[in-house]
Design brief:
Blueprint lengths: L11 H10 L1 H10 L6 E2 L3 E2 L6 E12 L17 H7 L6 E5 L11 H9 L4 E8 L2 H4 L5 E7 L9 E6 L3 E3 L2 E3 L4 E5 L2 E5 L4 H23 L4 H4 L7 H13 L7 H9 L1
Parallel strand pairs: 3-4, 4-5, 5-6
Antiparallel strand pairs: 1-11, 2-6, 3-7, 3-10, 8-9, 10-11
Length: 262
Amino acid sequence: MIEIPKIKRPDKKIVKKIEELGSATVSGTLYGMGITNPFIMGPTTKTPGKSVAGPAITLQFLPKREDIYNEDEYSDPELQLHRHALYQTEPGDVVVVDAMGDMTSGVFGEMMLTFFQGRGGAGVVIDGCIRDFVHAQELEIGMWLKGVTPNFHTQTNKYPSAVNIPIACGGTLVMPGDIIVADDDGAVVVPQNMAKELVESAGSHSDWEVWVRQKLAAGGHLKDYYGRTVWSKETDDEYKKWCKENNIKYISLEEEMKHKKK
């Protein structure tokens, strides 16, 4: 029997707030908190307009070596670890795969991704490929991939080695249970132990970005509005008034900066 480590899942309310922030705001906020590059480079969206956030189930692939792995695809399907990664799925989960950027092995196919969706999975982030994309693209899950291929998972030179261990996906460390937020900008890793602080820190930033977007759309100048550190007292007073009118908590620049430095 294969034993797979369980992941610790974060509070769903925190995950929802992170999804609403989006990957760009999350990445910028994490930078202010000391995480300089949480971006998973390589996988890009194959489901434009889709955004997800959820805890990471991790799957690692390694190069095949005959004394370690010398099986055909269906010799014993229940020994295939990529299946066991999907078996861990709970609603809202995101499967993150280090497939070493390989463009010849299809980590999952349509049937396995259909199973994942049926279990409530939100999306997959794969530094590698899937196959059966012609049908998989009709699913409702989000998919961030490096590419697609007609080959099955061990057809060439890679095999699934471990589930729910620390992995390097696109050169970025992903711990099991980390929160993944992914949209058209890409996929970003939020350390689970920093999630609550991130939401608190990003909240005020997100609010003033809404206001700035409105001012710029109405003809306002970048030098007057974009970049809170350049605001004049008059601009800040204008923002404070907007917060009051929209029942939004006003947070001063000084308070925001202090929070980021914690």
